[in-house]
Amino acid sequence: MYGAILGDIIGSIYEFKNIKSTDFPLISHEARFTDDSVLTVATAYALLYDKDYAETYRKFGRIYPNRGYGGRFKDWLSKDDAPAYNSFGNGSAMRVSPVAYCHNNLDDVLTEAERSAEATHNHPEGIKGAQSVAAAVYMARTGVIKSDIKRYICDNFSYDLSFSLSDIRQSYEFNETCQGSVPQAIVAFLESASYEDAVRKAVSIGGDSDTIACIAGSIAEAYYGGLPLDLIRYAESKLDYYMTDIIRRFKTKYKF
Asked: What share of the chain is helix, strand, coil (3-state, %, to 5)?
């Protein structure tokens, strides 16, 4: 889960100041956690304490306001009884990674990912984005090789993962939809040689940098078996005690 949060933090300063290179400082005083981290922790909280997703996303969104939430989510957040709003934004995909750790078979992971998405992002593309990322994280953490992860995502979610980052780096623009950012994040992972390399590659294409790095980072953490301690400490330095305590409790319960 720190893989997602660290990707968000690293990418946060490049979301509106895109950089088309992998050569940038990994650690910055200007970086901060955004809505990606808030809602990833919220998903972990809902799973940890068996809470309703919509209720939990409202709880955390209100505890941590002004973290870069999208306009429609902010409107939903302000109303206690607002229904899901048929979104296919990448918010469903960036917050889903904890789901991959709380079940021991892929079918249950996909079902849980759909539940987490449906609280707000109940459009088929919003659900697909969440399920594809959860599947990739689950497969990565259970030892599936990259070529098989790629094949599964292509076959089951109809994402085109045949492009390379070098093909799209100069022309890729900001796109906050699942269909316009989830494949790019997955390819950043597939082309990577390490966790750090995955995040650097994700940021290097520009676009919605914090979210793309969050998604790529969540898969890379699972695949490469965790993060260096110094990077975990850096992520923790950007969070408060409430968030880090939830993460630690979640990791202890699900033993990773």
From this structure: 65, 0, 35
Place of tokens 């995909």: 93
d(CA 71, CA 77): 10
Residue type, 48: L
For residue range 8-51, list pLDDT tens digits in order: 999 999 998 999 999 999 999 999 999 999 999 999 999 999 99
Per-residue buried b or exposed e for 186-220, using 16+ beta carbons within 10 Å of the residue's own CB: bbbbbbbeebbbbbbbbbbbbbbbbbbbbbbbbbb
CA gap 125, 225 in Å, rounded:
29
d(CA 46, CA 215): 19
Q: Is 231 within 8 Å of 30 (Cβ atoms)?
A: no
> Model pTM?
0.97
Find, among 92, 139, 5, 109, the residue nearest to 47 by Cα.
109
